[in-house]
């Protein structure tokens, strides 16, 4: 079985696990599609191919009876969301689905009607430059700087957001995924007579947690969510957080190693939009600085593996996140930001 490749550069990945959908949309084979996200599988493929998506909070859009590689795992809820080539298309999908009353058919859908949002003229955006674990590669770091400067020039207030809690969230995400000792994944592979791929080594060697240990992880997740909510409440009215979708603008199949920038908001269950900035990788501009200091082994590997020539010309995406169940607001914020980024 061959891999799905990126229609913008066949040597690169279209992302996963909704990468087939992102490739189809980016190639103009479909105007809109639906993918799933449990650790970034909507936002990462969208970023790799330069399209738009929203990761909704759990229960806002229907997900009933969807097939899952970890069916029954609900410590981190998998969600469905739209992928498209414009914010307008995301809005059309989101409003149409919510106005259809999905809570009447999906027992886990929350009964929240569509709520129109009117934004202030001047937004307050918090910027997360890095998450304390892996720094964004040069093109993504440049996009953050240039987008931040553009937002300031448009009159928006920009403040900094610290990375407290992000490393813990990423660690928790991995533990929840492996809590069954990899049994769910192993069962699927055995039925299909397929081996574990190298990228899935952790599932192959995982040890099952007991119920008590799982409950302690869930308590830790609740404490983390409260800490993050308190930080947001103390932020003085931040409308959204701007940060990388991934450390990478694009990369080759099999080289993706870090989902911390997306996974943190799966743990927190926040609504988030990934959007193309209108900027592209430039192999002359986007080089690792000579004074680069890695935050750790994974950060050092990320910088070492970065290949500017391989991803030259690829679109660079970023992510905007709002609080839980703020789909209407984060779509409006993303729409405003994108319109302000006409270069």
Could you name the CATH homologous superfamily?
A: Amidase signature (AS) domain
Structural class: alpha+beta
Shape: globular
Helix content: 25-40%
Proportion of residues in β-strands? 15-25%
End-to-end distance: 41 Å
Count of the domains: 1
The overall strand count is 10
Q: Write the CATH architecture name.
A: Alpha-Beta Complex
Please identify the top-level CATH class.
Answer: Alpha Beta
Figure out the total of helices. Answer: 11
- CATH topology description: Amidase signature (AS) enzymes
Mean pLDDT: 95
Q: Sheet with the most strands?
A: 8 strands, mixed
Strands side by side in the biggest sheet:
3-5-4-9-10-8-6-7
Put the structure in a nutshell:
The protein is of the alpha+beta class. 37% of the residues lie in helices and 15% in strands.
Describe the structure.
The chain is an alpha+beta fold. It has one domain (about 10-340): Amidase signature (AS) domain (Amidase signature (AS) enzymes, Alpha-Beta Complex). The protein has 11 helices and 10 strands. The longest helix has 23 residues, at about 210-235. It is globular, with a radius of gyration of 19 Å. The model has no long low-confidence stretch (mean pLDDT about 95).
């Amino acid at each position: 079985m061959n891999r799905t490749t990126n229609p913008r550069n066949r040597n690169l990945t279209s992302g996963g696990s909704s990468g087939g959908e992102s490739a189809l949309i980016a190639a103009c084979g479909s105007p809109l599609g639906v993918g799933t996200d449990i650790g970034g599988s909507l936002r990462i493929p969208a970023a790799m191919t330069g399209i738009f998506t929203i990761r909704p909070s759990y229960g806002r859009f229907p997900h009933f009876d969807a097939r899952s590689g970890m069916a029954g795992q609900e410590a981190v809820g998998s969600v469905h969301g739209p992928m498209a080539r414009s914010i307008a298309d995301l809005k059309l999908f989101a409003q149409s689905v919510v106005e259809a009353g999905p809570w009447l058919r999906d027992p886990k859908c929350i009964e929240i009607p569509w709520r129109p949002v009117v934004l202030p003229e001047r937004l307050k955006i918090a910027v997360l430059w890095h998450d304390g674990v892996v720094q964004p590669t040069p093109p993504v770091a440049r996009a953050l700087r240039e987008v931040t400067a553009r937002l300031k020039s448009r009159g928006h207030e920009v403040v900094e957001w610290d990375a407290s809690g992000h490393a813990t969230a990423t660690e928790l995400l991995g533990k929840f995924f492996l809590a069954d000792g990899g049994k769910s994944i192993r069962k699927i592979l055995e039925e299909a007579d397929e081996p574990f791929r190298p990228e899935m080594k952790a599932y192959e060697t995982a040890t099952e947690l007991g119920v008590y240990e799982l409950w302690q992880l869930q308590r830790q997740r609740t404490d983390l969510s409260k800490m993050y909510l308190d930080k947001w409440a103390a932020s003085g009215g931040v409308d959204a957080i701007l940060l990388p979708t991934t450390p990478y603008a694009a990369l080759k199949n099999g080289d993706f190693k870090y989902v911390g920038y997306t996974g943190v908001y799966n743990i927190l269950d926040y609504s988030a939009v990934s959007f193309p900035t209108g900027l592209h990788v430039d192999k002359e501009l986007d080089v690792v600085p000579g004074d680069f200091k890695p935050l750790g082994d994974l950060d050092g590997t990320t910088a070492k593996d970065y290949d500017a020539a391989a991803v030259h010309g690829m679109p660079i995406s970023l992510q905007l996140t709002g609080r839980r169940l703020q789909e209407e607001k984060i779509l409006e914020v993303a729409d405003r930001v994108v319109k302000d980024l006409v270069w």
